[in-house]
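Practice problem 4.
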């Protein structure tokens, strides 16, 4: 394919920055191509082609070139599919979407396609935009996101004895091995870890398997949300070997809330 040839992609805006007098450099996550960074020439002047479209979190259909050798794509045109306005207007939605955005940028490479991540991003942003509880959307996003990028945590069987979750045991998640350990095994070789109740483990395992369109039916108690967020935050930091900066701005979970 010639590098000049233009294609169309459904894409979510992950980042925008000004470039020179009139251009904007935009990073998208595209349905088939994955992360794509391109230049929208004259975007600051050309109101008609790009106005109100090149905004973080927006869902667009873009016409663009396929970049070669780490160059920027050329963004010819953009059509707004959904502005996901609530994500920029509501502070809880904004902070949650910011964590999702930061981790997606962190975990992906330019034009390394992924067919599963785009629908998950759309699910998360649509859920937030529709007023679904932000913490729950983040938890369900993250548990599936880690699987998609190849680091799904092992939450169904104890890493020590291999047994499935039993009501007589309690469980801890071991960051060093990416899975859970039952209290029986932990007694023999104490390892610490992050406490996860059986209810939380079951909910998270279910959230990994549930079809996306049914994911919002799953409930998660305030206690499970708290446990899950503590675990997912630590797991993400461990995986990327760095702090997740936008996590600092998330609101704490109120234990009373039962979503
Ligand atoms: Zn065990």
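Answer key:
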């Amino acid at each position: 394919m010639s590098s000049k040839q233009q294609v169309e992609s459904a894409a979510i805006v992950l980042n925008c920055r000004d470039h020179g007098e009139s251009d904007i450099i935009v990073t998208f996550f595209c349905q088939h191509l994955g992360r794509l960074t391109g230049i929208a020439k004259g975007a600051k002047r050309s109101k008609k082609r790009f106005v109100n479209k090149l905004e973080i979190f927006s869902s667009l259909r873009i016409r663009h070139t396929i970049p070669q050798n780490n160059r920027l794509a050329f963004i010819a045109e953009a059509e707004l599919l959904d502005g996901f306005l609530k994500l920029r207007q509501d502070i809880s939605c904004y902070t949650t979407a910011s964590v999702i955005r930061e981790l997606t940028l962190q975990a992906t490479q330019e034009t390394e396609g992924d067919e599963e991540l785009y629908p998950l991003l759309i699910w998360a942003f649509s859920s937030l935009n529709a007023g679904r509880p932000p913490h729950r959307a983040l938890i369900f996003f993250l548990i599936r996101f880690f699987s998609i990028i190849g680091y799904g945590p092992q939450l169904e069987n104890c890493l020590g004895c291999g047994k499935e979750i039993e009501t007589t045991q309690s469980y801890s998640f071991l960051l060093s091995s990416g899975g859970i350990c039952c209290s029986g095994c932990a007694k023999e070789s104490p390892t610490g870890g992050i406490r996860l109740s059986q209810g939380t483990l079951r909910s998270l395992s279910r959230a990994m398997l549930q079809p996306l369109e049914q994911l919002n039916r799953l409930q998660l108690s305030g206690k499970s949300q708290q446990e899950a967020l503590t675990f997912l935050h630590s797991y993400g930091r461990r995986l990327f070997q760095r702090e997740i900066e936008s996590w600092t701005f998330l609101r704490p979970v109120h234990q009373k809330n039962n979503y």
